[in-house]
Design brief:
Helices cover 46% and strands 25% of the residues. It has 4 helices and 5 strands. The chain has helices at 30-33, 64-92, 100-125, 127-130, and strands at 2-11, 14-20, 41-47, 57-61, 133-137. Helix 2 runs antiparallel to helix 3 (100-125).
Length: 138
């Protein structure tokens, strides 16, 4: 995925820039033209490998595969963990137990907390892959 960023400042080998997020539809539909889906700006820092200067516009590359896998991890893994925990709670806890549904829900909520810490650990290991890279100065 290629995006355009405008460098606001350069400090300590990093370029601090503003990048406009693209809409899911590609920002060329009738709704986008009516300002109903305004593109919001993000402020990011990127290693300044091209020695770009303040005021330059640069082309940024973000690995599409990594973005899609990250979305799957962020939404899919906690959802699967939650559903498995609820299913496991249904099987383990006896039907005659008082407040059984509450305990099953707590079991599912705990699975979300555990999946958060697992994903946080995995995210730290792959932090460099997620960082956008400067491709060229425009």
């Amino acid at each position: 995925m290629i995006q355009i960023g405008h460098i606001l400042s350069v400090k300590n080998g990093f370029a601090y820039m503003e990048v406009s997020r693209k809409g899911a539809c590609g920002s060329a539909c009738a709704v986008c033209e009516s300002s109903a889906c305004e593109s919001k700006s993000e402020f990011i820092s990127v290693p300044n490998e091209l020695n770009a200067e303040e005021g330059d516009s640069v082309e940024l590359y973000v690995n599409d595969n990594f973005v899609l896998h990250s979305i799957y991890k962020l939404y899919g893994i906690p959802l699967i963990a939650f559903l498995l925990a609820i299913g496991l709670g249904q099987l383990i806890l006896p039907d005659a137990m008082e407040r059984r549904d509450l305990y099953i829900f707590i079991f599912g909520a705990l699975s979300l907390v555990v999946s958060y810490f697992i994903l946080r650990t995995v995210d730290k290991k792959h932090a460099n892959e997620a960082r956008p890279k400067m491709v060229r100065i425009l």
